[in-house]
């Protein structure tokens, strides 16, 4: 069995829990199941309105991993606002993914536009690295993006795979979008960056991506994983996604 690439995003678990003033489904409980089943770690995106993940979830997950799963990783995803950076400083996740989201966005749906002012982003990267947190930047599938990320001091990029995932019923278009993802991954590798990928990845569309870019080190999966877990359960879905990645 090879090391896992799978980081399970549990935002949807928190969203379901928040429909009631009750503690279930448990974000930490299901995260523990995922990690016990072989997931590399857990990803969460705490938004300012706490419509799914709450700040308390972040602290609880950080404590869970520190105490019970010290070989696993917590990744915090978010816009580098002062409040978010304070959370990163306090929780000290293994990795932070900076995304250019407006607070009202439903989900991360585009990467950083590096031709705009990135001074605030550069300051956030410096701060996170001072806290010994690995920094990843969310990038569109654009081979020119990784060089900008490297210049800013990031250690990894996460390629936005939404356009590729949206082609589930159009094989020809999927091939074109896959080419963009792979070209971006190769450009990042050539810049010395670690390569992550995430958004709308499934057990069906992961194998072609891994075949062409086997050096991808992490895949953050939430929506597709949760949809799978409703049928197969959390533990079996971890195994299904890891099989799709060629790990078991």
Describe what this molecule looks like in 3D:
Homooctamer; tetramer of dimers. It catalyses: 3-amino-2-oxopropyl phosphate + 1-deoxy-D-xylulose 5-phosphate = pyridoxine 5'-phosphate + phosphate + 2 H2O + H(+). Pfam families: PdxJ (PF03740). InterPro entries: Aldolase_TIM, PyrdxlP_synth_PdxJ, Pyridoxine-5'_phos_synth. The chain is α/β, with parallel strands linked by helices and 248 residues long. The relative contact order is 0.15. The termini are close together. The protein is globular, with a radius of gyration of 17 Å. Helix 2 packs parallel to helix 3, helix 2 packs across helix 11 (234-244) and helix 6 packs parallel to helix 8 (171-190). It has an eight-stranded parallel β-barrel with strand order 1-2-3-4-5-6-7-8, surrounded by seven helices. It is 46% helix and 15% strand. The mean pLDDT is 95. It has helices at residues 11-17, 27-36, 55-68, 82-91, 119-130, 145-152, 162-165, 171-190, 206-212, 223-232, 234-244, and strands at residues 6-9, 41-44, 73-78, 95-98, 134-139, 156-160, 194-198, 218-221. The chain has one domain (6-244): TIM Barrel.
């Amino acid at each position: 069995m090879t090391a896992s690439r799978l980081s399970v995003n549990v935002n949807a678990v928190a969203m379901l829990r928040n429909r009631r003033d009750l503690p279930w489904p448990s974000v930490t409980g299901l995260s523990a199941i995922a990690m016990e089943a072989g997931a590399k770690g857990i990803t969460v995106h705490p938004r300012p309105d706490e419509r799914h993940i709450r700040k308390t979830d972040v602290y609880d997950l950080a404590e869970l991993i520190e105490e019970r799963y010290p070989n696993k990783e917590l990744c915090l995803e978010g816009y580098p606002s002062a409040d978010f950076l304070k959370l990163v400083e306090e929780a000290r996740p293994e990795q932070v993914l900076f995304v250019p989201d407006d607070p009202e966005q439903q989900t991360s749906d585009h990467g950083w536009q590096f031709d705009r002012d990135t001074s605030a982003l550069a300051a956030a990267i410096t701060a996170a690295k001072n806290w010994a947190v690995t920094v990843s930047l969310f990038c569109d599938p654009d081979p020119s993006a990784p060089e900008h990320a490297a210049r800013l001091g990031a250690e990894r990029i996460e390629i936005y795979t939404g356009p590729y995932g949206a082609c589930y019923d159009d094989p020809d278009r999927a091939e074109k979008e896959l080419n963009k993802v792979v070209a971006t991954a190769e450009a990042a590798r050539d810049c010395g960056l670690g390569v992550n990928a995430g958004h709308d990845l499934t057990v069906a569309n992961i194998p072609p991506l891994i075949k062409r870019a086997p050096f991808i080190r992490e895949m953050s999966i939430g929506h597709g994983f949760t949809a799978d877990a409703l049928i197969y359960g959390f533990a079996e879905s971890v195994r299904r996604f890891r099989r799709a990645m060629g790990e078991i």
